[in-house]
Amino acid sequence: MQHEAASASVKLQRHSLDTSYALERSQALERENTRLIEELNVLRAHPNTSPDPSALQNPQLNNTLRQLSDKLSQTEELLLKRTNESLHVAHELARVKYDRDAAYEITAKARAREEDCKIRERTLLLQARNAKEESKMADLVVQVSSATPFRNGAVCSSSERRNTPIWSET
What we know:
2 strands; mainly alpha; single chain; 3 helices
């Protein structure tokens, strides 16, 4: 996820740089175009009536203006394209960040469940150990009860049992 976010960030920076360059170029072409339009307006306002070689320059200016206008149109199209790409990359970056946050949330929930399971496992192991100890104690009580000495066909009283060792033969 981090690699994708970094890759998207690099792409966004590259598109931003390309857009900046395209915008600067577009602005330069617009300034040149404005200057040429102003020059053309001046030439139209003050036409040269003398038939000299400079009169041939007017068609050249028109051609130059047309070429610059075409370049400006191309630059504007490129700028629009780069802007759309930048918006797409920004949208993609936002989606990646949202996915990353969702993944962190899922991971946190999974860790919490894992911790709960570990606690439950420890509790069950403790209960099993306690049950095993109780079973051993119950078996020991049964063994002690079966080994209790009998006197005259009756079970000895508890005070007699306390005074009589289990291993002794009476």
